[in-house]
């Protein structure tokens, strides 16, 4: 698992906590900031998953597991 995947998931959790805190304290800026952090975390997690996929494909190709018929 790529470190960006892990960092992205963590960022999403922190963003969710900020969003909830903003909602509880009626602080719109904190709530919106939390949503923004969650979105950034999702993007980072997706980037990490994409890198994992490319690495796996490269490893398969290096091992001779070419997917061509």
Descriptive account of the structure:
Helix content is 83%, strand content 0%. It contains two helices and no strands. The longest helix has 35 residues, at 28-62. It is rod-shaped, with a radius of gyration of 18 Å.
- SS strand fraction: under 5%
Shape, per Cα inertia axes: rod-shaped
Q: Measured on Cα atoms, how large is the radius of gyration?
A: 18 Å
- Helix percent band: over 70%
Largest sheet: none
- What integer is the average pLDDT? 92
Whole-number total of structural domains: 1
Secondary-structure element order, as H and E? HH
Task: Name the poorly predicted regions.
Answer: none
Care to count the β-strands?
Answer: 0
**Structural class from helices and strands?**
mainly alpha
Give the termini separation. 29 Å
- Count of helical stretches: 2
In short:
The chain is mainly α and 69 residues long. 83% of the residues lie in helices and 0% in strands.
Which structural traits does this protein have?
mainly alpha; 83% helix; rod-shaped; 69 residues
